[in-house]
Amino acid sequence: MIAILDFGSQYAQLIARKVRALRVFAQILPHSVTAADLRELQPEGIILSGGPASVTDPNAPTIDREILELGCPVLGICYGMQLIVQLLGGEVRPQAHSEYGRAHLTNIVPHPLFQGVPLGSVVWMSHNDAAVSLPPEWETLASTEGCAQVAVCHRGRPLFGLQFHPEVHHSRHGLRILRNFVVGICRAKRTWRMRDYITHIVEETRARLAQAPSDARIVGAVSGGVDSTVLATLMHRAVGDRFVPVFVDNGLLRKNEAQSVRENFRQRLGFDVVFVDAAERFLEALRGVTDPEEKRRIIGRVFVEVFFSHLRPHDLLAQGTLYPDVIESVSVKGPSATIKTHHNRVREILDLMEQGRVVEPLRELFKDEVRELGRELGIPHEMLWRQPFPGPGLAVRILGEVTPERLGILREADAIVIEEIKAAKLYHKIWQSFAVLLPVKAVGVMGDARTYANVVALRAVESVDGMTADFVKLPWPLLARIASRIINEVQGVNRVVYDVSSNPPSTIEWE
Ligand code: XMP
């Protein structure tokens, strides 16, 4: 196990995730953990994370100094490095110029920590302070143009410091450096598997429910999406029928979606969802509303009303919140993350959190880890690899008023898009592909007669995380087939256009 002591870094989870990717278990602990506690945990190595504070501040967070004497290797990253340097007698000072972003390693001393890392390798920096003198018996391992002490170590003891962030994607050989530390230097055994995480969550959930009153259940909303499906499967495995999965049909779903979610749970996962048909209630609340934000607010409010009516006084609420949904301070945080955070953090849910009634077992994980967890749980591939679908459903793809008639048109058009994209074997290669119903009408000609009908826009984007995206250059013949099928098969549409904008500046969804 690798212990990660957290100093409030936006990247602490990212360090844990990279260590887990090396198949070594990583546990995040508060920086205030004592050396005695750590001795009991017997970590094979310790990583001190970065953090927003400055070690030059008298109230700066610190560690129990004895941790540096435990004998197990310690790696300080950014703030963590500065802290070690200062604690052992070196000097850290604020720099005249802060350094953010890309830098190149201009000097590397041969050392196991940098094995396989070439000169010039890109590292990602984010700091104001820097070590200006090293403690006795310490030496420099690497430098960049802007920072002389970008990697340092003790000459005889296994203590190391990196001023840059090896855990971020943009540090080109970052994972290699972490691997050199975790596997090469700490000699951690690479035996950890996702299935160990399943055991951990199952045990934790059982313990949690055991503390609740005997009539308490765990209730969770399922949508058919990856996160809630994995969550539901885990909860069901942990507490069986005391887990109640609730599926709310908001009337804004895709063609046959409600039915297929229901069947998939029963037939492929082996348990039933409580099916709530609230379509009329949602559509009624949306009647006459055209403002996108207003639509979202209404859908959020009605969802909470409907869902919470299934929660009894002692029940716990399970949510499939992932790490990117809860992270507070990531600089790349985009509108989608904010929206999602919002959905899992509405007033009613915050109240439950205060009462200690919310369980979020996936909150330390990233999407690809959740998929791996799902695979370990035996969830079928097509349930794990569905394209994302927004909570407010087709409502944010119908520009203008959401009416049953317009929903019908979009559902049919969307079904054709999915069918054709799947037939072209592109469904899993594309982040999202869907149809949007525009609030305008256009003139056309069909069978010698004039038509004046709806316009459908197609959107297909590639993305790695939904934060940024670009449109997919779909083959012309495929675009032509989709357009032709929609115009011929969906009544009320006489024109199809293709959206060629990227995100930013255009978001993936149109509303
Ligand atoms: P945007 O449109 O912000 O979308 O570029 C980024 C990603 O998030 C999805 N999305 C949502 N997901 N609730 C969700 O669960 C929402 O309200 C929501 N809005 C957008 C969108 O489909 C894309 O994958």
**Count of discrete alpha- or pi-helical segments spanning 4 or more residues:** 16
Distance between the termini: 45 Å
- Which class of secondary structure composition applies to the elements? alpha/beta
Look at the structure and name the CATH superfamily of the largest domain: HUPs
The counted number of beta strands is 18
Mean pLDDT: 93
Helix content: 25-40%
CATH topological fold name of the largest domain: Rossmann fold
Rg, rounded, reads 26 Å
CATH C-level class of the largest domain is Alpha Beta
Reading side by side through the largest sheet, how are the strands ordered? Answer: 2-1-3-4-9-8-7-5-6
Query: What's the shape?
Result: globular
Structure characterization notes:
This protein is of the alpha/beta class and 511 residues long. The protein folds into three domains: 2-185, Rossmann fold (3-Layer(aba) Sandwich); 194-384, HUPs (Rossmann fold, 3-Layer(aba) Sandwich); 397-498, GMP Synthetase, Chain A, domain 3 (2-Layer Sandwich), CATH 3.30.300.10. The chain has helices at residues 12-21, 35-41, 79-87, 174-185, 194-211, 226-239, 257-269, 279-286, 292-308, 323-326, 335-344, 347-354, 367-376, 381-384, 404-423, 476-489, and strands at residues 2-6, 26-30, 45-48, 74-77, 91-108, 122-133, 138-144, 151-154, 159-162, 218-221, 243-249, 274-277, 316-318, 358-359, 432-446, 449-462, 470-471, 493-498. The chain has a nine-stranded mixed beta sheet with strand order 2-1-3-4-9-8-7-5-6, with helices on both faces. Strands 12-11-10-13-14 form a five-stranded parallel beta sheet, with helices on both faces. Strand 8 and strand 9 form a beta hairpin. The chain is globular. It starts with a strand and ends in a 13-residue tail after the last strand.
